[in-house]
Amino acid sequence: MVHELSGAAIAGTGHAVPERVVTNFDLEKMVDTSDEWIRTRTGIRERRVADENTATSDLAVAAAREALDMAGMAPSDLDLIVVATVTPDMLFPSTACLVQDRLGAAHAAAFDLSAGCSGFVYALATAAQFIQTGAYSNALVVGAETLSKITDWQDRSTCVLFGDGAGAVVLKAAPAGKGLVSFVLGADGSGKDKLRLPAGGSRLPASAETVAQRQHYIQMCGHDVFRFAVRVLGEATREALEKAGLGLNQLDFFVPHQANVRIIDAAVERLELPKEKVIVNVDRFGNTSAASVAIALDEAVRSGRIQPGQVVAMTGFGAGLTWASAVFRW
Ligand code: UT7
Q: How far does the centroid of ligand 1 lie from the alpha carbon of residue 154, in Å?
């Protein structure tokens, strides 16, 4: 028997960022850099940084509450929680289980998903499968990070880039054709060394030596990731739209991963998209990895830019290397 897939629509969005703002001028006092270099090379002016008592799950829970409020749902309505993160509170249990407990989402299955900065879009596509097959009705998808905790604050080539935050959406069953229309997920594990945190796992367990060698911090080949990013941001978006049977001219909003405004501009130029259709907030938050697309999406929804019926494409790229694009009809 052919089972018709249900739709998986976004019923609510939310985001949370720490209060503390760190500007480029603050960074000038910490490493050999300048506001001018950071602005012209990345487009970033400031980022949010969590205090020592704030972990990833704290931001995830705050963002989730906002999304549930907008959806008019209680935590007990949730069947599933997926948290995309590379900065879980701890290796295990999953951050999703911590969120489930804090929300009191007693009926929800919960797991984390690791796909670097593509994590939120990977998680959206994953959670939507459970809804489209009819297995579940309501899912919470969160992208949440406290990258400041794994940033080497002595390394000017990375510490100026990252920020902390969380974004969340509630997905719910909808009539077929509404919500998620298509997605593209991809990975190229041969790029595993381009962006990584080497120690603290089973390959290099934490030791006095790994700490002394600063191996618990993000390491990145910026140039290589930049080239990869520009290519896949355009390609994945184009491919997802093709799968949806839509042309680029039918796209109302493009929500790219917020890593560097130069990456976004280059991809947007290749796609020949008008700038008004592109959601950008990297200037205020920096690169928040798995949270970035979700935060940008929430801002665009709450400001009234994204309206029912519109076509929205979200595309991420990051460690793995990975990429992911999802097209929604709002
Ligand atoms: O979320 C996904 C993962 N991340 C990304 O998408 C990041 C992708 N990469 C990038 O965004 C860019 O490659 C960076 C912003 C990281 C670097 O920009 P770039 O234009 O590729 O600069 P570069 O690495 O070629 O460095 C140019 C110069 C170097 O000096 P020399 O060798 O030309 O003398 C660097 O040492 O800029 C220097 N530099 C800095 N100078 C001032 C590097 N970082 C800094 C800094 N302040 N913070």
A: 14
